[in-house]
Structure formats: structure tokens, C-alpha cells
Amino acid sequence: MKDYYLILGLTKDSSAKDIKESYKKLARKYHPDLNPNNKGAEEKFKEVSEAYEVLSNKEKKKKYDLGDQDLHSQQYSGKHGPFYYESQQEENSRYRDIFEDLFKGGFSSSSYNSSRVRTKGQDYNFKMEVDFSDSILGAEKTFTLPDGKNIKVQIPAGLRSGQKLRFKNLGEDLGSGKSKGDVYVEITVRPSSDYKRIGDDLEVEVPLLFSTAILGGYVLVSTIDGNIELNVPSGISTGTKIRVKGKGVRKKDNPGDLYAVIKVIVPPKVSKELEEAISKWEASNVS
């Protein structure tokens, strides 16, 4: 019999989790859809799938470990061998969660019908993380597909987590004049520790010296693409928002705004002169 443990790079002591994880890794490496026109990869995929078919099933694994010589001939006499396109069509297949992860959520049982009856290639779904600043300003990134092909991804300003970008005709190619599948890239935006996004507007907290809050003056405000000087009126208090036009999401037609949220910083040590000045000010306002 074939050494299924060796095929999956495992030992007899390997857990069910180890078996599943090893198969997932090898299936991704050798899957025919990710290795088009590669007969070697296709055969290797069949082999690791055959091993997983047995080792992931408690009863079959038990028989295999006991040296059941009939197991292979009974189970894999079909022309395609175990777990090929036919078995991927089953809605309740125990392989489904593996292939959902393999294709980043893009697995669909209907997409694995025989290429003889399909008229359109399978769509592939992937995920891509982008920086918060790129989602605000827009950017161009390069994304590498599993087959090694690079595609340029244009990140439009204002893109949010969960939104997908479509790339036509970069999915599965069935040949024979049939329509190619598409590639979808789902975007995840890394959160920012400095900015809060509200619609197309941004908010940023701006620390302000106590003296500047009283007298007024200029303060540096951090924006996505650099610092600016902001004129602060005298007598401003914590929580006040000052609008900076056009410094939010940089949409061409209607860019958002940036709101500087003032946070007055009280000095840790108050001098005697400052105490006296504040006492006089308080007394004059009470009277």
C-alpha cells in the first residue's frame, strides 16, 4: 500500500488537526486550478487527496493502520481517483471548509462542475490588507496571484474594509473559446491609531497648551499627508472641533474634511503667579 502518512509529511501519531492542516497546505500547492496545464501538480494533488480521503475518515484510517489490503482497490478504482472535480461538487462535503479557506472564501460547489458542461471559468477570491492612509488618499499596489502573476490594484480614495475590486478574465481559463473567470480582491483596511473616520470626514485629537487655549495662537495639526499650522482662537476649550476643509477622504469630486478635536493640556505644576492670575480672573468674573 501507499504510505499515506509519508505523502502528507506526517507520522502515525499525527492528530486529526495535523492531517487537515497538512492536506490544506499541500492542496493549495498542487491544486489544478492554481497550476494550470501542469500534469505533475495534478497527479500530486490526486495523491495527497487520496491520502487525506483515508486518513481523515476514522473508519478508513483504522482499516489502513491495520493493513487492510483491499482498501485502496475498493476506494480508488475510478478513472479520476479520490476527491477530484466530481467529489468537490457535493454541498456537504467535508472538504468544503478547506477549499473555502484555500480560495479565500471563493469556493463554490457549483463552480467545480466538470469543465465539459461549464461555460465560464471559476472566479477566484482573495484578500488584501491596505494601510489606512492608502484608503484615504488612494494608491496603486501590486498583488501577486498564486500562479505568480502580478496584477496592479488601484485603491480608490474612500475604499472601506469588505469592499471588493474585480479584475475581469484573470480567473480560471477553460479554453475552447469559453469565458474566463474573474478575480476578486477583498480589501481590509488596517485601522489607524491617530485618526477616526466618520463617513468621508476624519477626526484627529490635537493637544493644546493651556496658555495657547487662553491666549490663542498657532498649533501644528497632523494630517494624512503632512502637518499644517492651525490658527486657534483665544478662549478655546477641550472638545471644540475646528474644521480643516478638504483634508479628509480625497475623493476628486467631493473630498471630505478633517476635524481637529482640541484637548487642552493643563500644566502638571502650577506656579504661584499663575494661581494668582487665575484667582483674580475668577474673582472678576464672579463679581
Summarize it.
This protein has 287 residues and is α+β, with helices and mostly antiparallel strands. It has helices spanning 4-7, 16-30, 39-55, 58-65, 70-75, 85-88, 96-102, 132-137, 210-215, 272-286, and strands at 124-130, 139-144, 150-155, 164-167, 183-189, 195-198, 201-209, 217-223, 226-232, 241-244, 258-265. The protein folds into 3 domains: 1-114, DnaJ domain (Helix Hairpins); 118-191, HSP40/DNAj peptide-binding domain (Sandwich), CATH 2.60.260.20; 195-286, Urease metallochaperone UreE, N-terminal domain (HSP40/DNAj peptide-binding domain).
What is the tally of helical segments? 10
Low-confidence stretches: 73-93, 104-116
Q: Globular, elongated, flat, extended or rod-shaped: what is the shape?
A: elongated
Classified by CATH, the class of the largest domain is Mainly Alpha
> What's the story with the biggest beta sheet?
4 strands, mixed
* Nearest-integer average pLDDT: 82
Largest sheet: spatial strand order:
6-7-11-10
Q: What is the count of β-strands?
A: 11
Written description of the protein model:
The chain is of the alpha+beta class. It has 3 domains: 1-114, Helix Hairpins, CATH 1.10.287.110; 118-191, HSP40/DNAj peptide-binding domain (Sandwich), CATH 2.60.260.20; 195-286, Urease metallochaperone UreE, N-terminal domain (HSP40/DNAj peptide-binding domain, Sandwich). Helices cover 31% and strands 24% of the residues. It is built from 10 helices and 11 strands. The strands form 4 sheets. Strands 6-7-11-10 form a 4-stranded mixed beta sheet. Strand 2 (139-144) and strand 3 (150-155) form a beta hairpin. The longest helix is centred in the N-terminal third of the chain and has 17 residues, at 39-55. The termini are far apart. Residues 73-93 and 104-116 have low confidence and may be disordered.
